[in-house]
């Protein structure tokens, strides 16, 4: 039986290991820290198509991700659920109403067959009934649309459980500093997310792919919230989320380019930016005193855009010798990416 080492027990490496085990391979998963210790527990907790990626023409990715949401809901309904989000429209702020309306309709079309309710328009009074704390000045109404929300850490650990049930071995606190540390394996998968280049650079072949490290921070406020929101950052093209999460309100995220894969904690500037964005749309204002927790993670993105907001959330594979390097991706589509990584690996094993 072929023996495969998967390096990196974030959601991408874990889904790849899970796929390989389902196909009957012997798999060992290595992590320098612990499963889901880094980016995979620092996401916005959304299993989503990514409404905003429609603007950059990533239709294929959005379609894949919209369909992928259902996989997680079916497999682990105790760790994720459908979530209705409102995109409030204010006169003169952000994109015009028609543009958001077109995007939500397109989202519905790409989601056909995924079992999610369709989007619809809510009047200003209906919107305020859902969230009386929203500012009413210049509010035209809101588009309601559906995605799903997960507990990313617990859902990731659930995948680890599936790996163990299929006989996969998990080595925590086992950094793979050098590929020569794994001589007894038929193939190696480098799924180290933000650290992918460390192992790739040990191979002589010319680098084909460049990565971008983009930190995203969130803040948590100890106040319950009934209605999830997606809102434009005032005077920017970016959007941010205000989400109910485990009885609190989660606000995020930021996009800060870093020159290293390790995450830094949310900076005071990021916290102020998120509070300011929230306060712009809400009657009851928040201050730094209200922030009970922050968390940050680094997105391993394929370098393809000047502005990280426009970077693709697609993924890429590269095989060098018996090593498959996995670049990019997103949580929602990790299971599909894991299956595709297997297909790629089979090509080099045969
Ligand atoms: C702020 C933010 C918000 C996001 N929101 C969403 C969202 O709402 N929905 C969504 O679908 N996606 C979201 N994403 C994207 C998603 O979280 C990531 O694409 C995904 O978690 C990346 O997983 P990964 O396994 O590649 O990386 P990681 O989770 O970082 O895993 C890599 C693992 O490799 C290990 N490792 C590294 N080097 C070595 C080594 N040499 N030896 C052994 N182990 C090693 C690390 O310890 C780590 O555990 C978000 C990302 C960020 C940063």
Automatic annotation (TrEMBL):
Q: For the FAD dependent oxidoreductase domain, which residue ranges apply?
A: 3-338
Does the record's keyword annotation contain Cell membrane?
no
Cofactor(s) named in the record: FAD
Question: SUPFAM superfamilies, from UniProt?
Answer: FAD/NAD(P)-binding domain
* UniProt xrefs under Pfam families: DAO (PF01266)
Name the keywords, alphabetized: FAD, Flavoprotein, Oxidoreductase
Read off the InterPro entries from this record: FAD-dep_OxRdtase, FAD/NAD-bd_sf, G3P_DH_FAD-dep
| The family this protein is said to belong to | Belongs to the FAD-dependent glycerol-3-phosphate dehydrogenase family.
The molecule here is called FAD-dependent oxidoreductase
Upper taxonomic lineage: Bacteria, Pseudomonadati, Pseudomonadota, Betaproteobacteria, Neisseriales
């Amino acid at each position: 039986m072929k023996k495969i080492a998967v390096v990196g027990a974030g959601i991408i490496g874990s889904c790849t290991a899970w796929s390989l085990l389902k196909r009957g391979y012997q798999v060992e998963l290595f992590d320098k820290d612990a499963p889901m210790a880094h980016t995979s527990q620092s996401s916005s907790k959304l299993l989503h198509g990514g409404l905003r990626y429609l603007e950059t023409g990533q239709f294929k990715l959005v379609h894949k991700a919209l369909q992928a949401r259902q996989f997680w809901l079916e497999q682990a309904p105790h760790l994720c659920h459908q979530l209705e989000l409102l995109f409030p429209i204010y006169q003169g702020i952000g994109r015009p109403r028609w543009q958001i309306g077109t995007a939500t309709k397109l989202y519905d079309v790409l989601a056909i067959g995924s079992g999610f309710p369709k989007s619809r328009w809510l009047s200003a009074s209906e919107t305020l009934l859902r969230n009386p704390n929203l500012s009413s000045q210049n509010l035209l109404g809101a588009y309601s649309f559906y995605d799903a929300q997960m507990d990313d850490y617990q859902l990731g650990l659930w995948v680890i459980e599936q790996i163990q049930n299929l006989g996969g071995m998990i080595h925590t606190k086992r950094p793979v500093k050098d590929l020569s540390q794994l001589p007894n394996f038929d193939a190696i998968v480098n799924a180290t997310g933000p650290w992918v280049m460390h192992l790739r650079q040990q191979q002589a072949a010319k680098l084909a792919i460049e990565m971008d490290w983009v930190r995203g921070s969130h803040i948590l406020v100890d106040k319950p919230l009934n209605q999830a929101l997606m809102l434009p950052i005032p005077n920017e093209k970016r959007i941010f989320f205000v989400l109910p999460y485990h009885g609190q309100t989660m606000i995020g995220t930021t996009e800060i380019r870093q020159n290293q894969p390790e995450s830094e904690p949310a900076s005071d500037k990021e916290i102020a930016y998120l509070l300011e964005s929230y306060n712009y749309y809400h009657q009851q204002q928040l201050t730094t005193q209200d922030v009970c927790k922050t968390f940050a993670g680094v997105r391993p993105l394929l370098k393809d855009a000047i502005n990280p907001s426009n970077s693709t959330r697609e993924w890429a594979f590269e095989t060098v010798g018996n090593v498959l390097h996995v670049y990019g991706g997103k949580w929602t589509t990790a299971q599909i990416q894991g299956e595709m990584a297997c297909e790629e690996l089979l090509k080099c094993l045969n």
